[in-house]
Automatic annotation (TrEMBL):
GO terms for biological process: lipid metabolic process. GO terms for cellular component: membrane. GO terms for molecular function: oxidoreductase activity, acting on paired donors, with oxidation of a pair of donors resulting in the reduction of molecular oxygen to two molecules of water. Keywords: Membrane, Transmembrane, Transmembrane helix. The chain crosses the membrane at residues 37-58, 64-81, 200-219, 225-249. It comes from the Bacteria. It comes from Lujinxingia vulgaris. This is Fatty acid desaturase domain-containing protein. The keyword Cytoplasm does not apply. InterPro entries: FA_desaturase_dom, Fatty_acid_desaturase. Residues 65-318 form the Fatty acid desaturase domain.
Amino acid sequence: MTQISDTPEAVRTFLDAEQSRAVLLASRPFTEARDAVAAWQIGSTLVLFLLMLGFASWMGPSPYLLLLAPFGAGFFMRIFVFQHDLGHRSAFRSARVNDVLGTLLSLITSIPFEPWRTEHHWHHNHQGRLSKRGVDNMNSPMTLDEIPERPAEARYRIKKVRPLNIFLLGAHSLLIERRVPRGFFPFRESFKDAVHNREAMLRAIAWTLPAHLALHALVVLTLGWWVSVLVLVPSLVLGAGTGGVLFWIQHNFEHTYYAEDEEWHKANTAVYGSSYLKLGGVLRWFTADIGLHHVHHLNPRIPNYNLERARRAIPELAAVEPLSDEDLRRSFTHLFWDRDARRMRPAQGKLDG
């Protein structure tokens, strides 16, 4: 792996095929699931979540309950990351246990398990491929050379990509669009790959929302309407919007990775094309280490509780620098892929006139 200086003129180089295979091989020991750890993570989180709801019930209807929304959002994000791990069948040794628990947690998050898992697997297998742009709109950048051909689209992209907009679009995508089949990649016209579990996805979409609403009804009946209206709903919206921002910065940053099919390697999508967001203890707990996204993308069978060990042990991952404040800012300004320099750029005057 060649290290380069970070100058505008420098052309980045990436792992070759042999290096990619070696890094992937090095990740395998960390895929070992530990059932007791996973059970403790999920069980203790649900207990704490229920304790928060019980406290809100005891408090009674009060606008001060809205102060619990950030904590509730954190719980929803943590539970969603568990659902995500279960979708990869990485948390427990048993595939059936992963599937059953993932389905049950989806009733809390309201995100259908089977269609989310299906499109997420596609994301892992195709992220960073320039030829696959247009399916996953969040990770489909225009290139610099496309700006003169499609200036209106470029201007729209510049106008739309703002932190608040990404927050709102993320919440809308997760909580509204994904109530119907077209909210998921495999049901869109732009999706050309074969789909083998269409009926299972449709069933999950059909019953997840009613089951989620039934849980809300149970909360209203047992804990009080204010727990649902003043705690759960704001928490879900805040968590979904924050999740949307996290999704964005996981792959949209200046020194990310895209390649044509003949040059694309999965390990490069991880080491170069997935970010390392270093969070403090509380935020790291609420996000279940999803900030170590470069480790997760190298091998999605690594459960969240093994990600940090893998990061420290694999030199290519340990060498990845966490995103700085400036990197985060540029995630929303450097929106166009420079094929020559192999990095994201701002429009660079290509829209002048």
